[in-house]
Amino acid sequence: MSNSLYSMLDVHSPANGVQQIQLHRPEALNALTTAMLGELALALEEAEANESVKVVVLTGSARVFAAGADVKEMAERDMVGILKDPRQQSWQSISRFPKPLVAAINGYCLGGGCELAMHADILIAGTDAKFGQPEINLGIMPGAGGTQRLVRAVGKSLAMQMVLTGQPINALQAKEAGLISEITQPELTLTRAMEVASQIAKKSPLALRLAKESILKGMDTDLNTGLRFERHAFTVLAGTKDREEGIAAFLEKRPAKFTGQ
Ligand code: CAA
Questions:
Q1: Ligand 1 atom 29: the closest Cα is on which residue?
Q2: Is the full-model pTM beyond 0.90?
Q3: Looking at ligand 1, which residue's alpha carbon is closest to its atom 30?
Q4: In ligand 1, which atom is closest to the CA atom of 69?
Q5: Interface pTM, i.e. ipTM
Q6: Dihedral through CA 120, CA 122, CA 128, CA 129, nearest 10?
Q7: What is the mean pLDDT of each run of 10 residues along the chain (261 residues)?
Q8: Alpha carbon distances (Å) from 111 to 55, 132, 162, 198, 226
Q9: 114 CB less than 6 Å from ligand 1?
Q10: Domains contained in the chain, CATH given
Q11: What is the best residue among 23, 29, 65 to mutate for testing ligand 1's pocket, by most ligand atoms within 8 Å of CB?
């Protein structure tokens, strides 16, 4: 069942801890309008607050994940309009989502769509996926993390090539470069992403949250600061019931039942 509060998203009810959110603006290849991005930020805020959601899977359609920011809407914005752009708040909100976010990507994943996919913690793509930052063809450049997250994901040379030529890479190149973790047959992308999400949903939510935060912190900082953060997070988890349960379950040779306490 999906939530009709949203007009450009299909937000499913969580099942076994996994909530699926599907971008749904087929008439414009899921181009991200300000309103659509706002809906996504809101859906993720709701997913954060909902204890029955442990993991979110974000996907598009069989043909496209998202073809970027909506160019027609962008054309109406001047410099002042961009300075006051509410999209920034939505991007920040999406980037702060603390639960695991898995992206299932088929077809075009371009511009703001690629930038959105890079907000996911795990990216799984069909063999038909195409990742690109084509903004240069419009006389602009990526503006939602494309020059920053992409270089961290694929390294300088490939990031430069993608951003400066605007040419997309295919799923195999994306896998080799480390942008995605797995390639599947296109018809299995969502199934595989749901499988990975289901595995994650069985773990302790507290451990998931701190492990995610620790990895993201490490990408943002020097090694010593990252290691200190990891040590604090590891120590905090020593005080949780989930740790007691995880260790007891291992010793008693039974599956753990984590409660998020
Ligand atoms: N914005 C608005 N509308 C878009 C769109 C976009 N980014 N991408 C596709 N559409 C619309 C098309 O205008 C077309 O609508 P009409 O039928 O009303 O004309 C419809 O979606 C189908 O698109 P095409 O006919 O172009 O489909 P195609 O299969 O021939 O080509 C494509 C697919 C290669 C993805 C092509 O649509 C394309 O190049 N899209 C633009 C990609 C792009 O430049 N993205 C970057 C945007 S800028 C950005 O993202 C900046 C940022 O975040 C900061």
A1: 29
A2: yes
A3: 29
A4: 50
A5: 0.97
A6: 30
A7: 81 97 97 97 98 98 97 89 88 98 98 98 98 98 96 97 98 98 98 98 98 96 97 97 97 96 94
A8: 25, 6, 11, 29, 30
A9: no
A10: 2-201 (3.90.226.10), 205-251 (1.10.12.10)
A11: 29
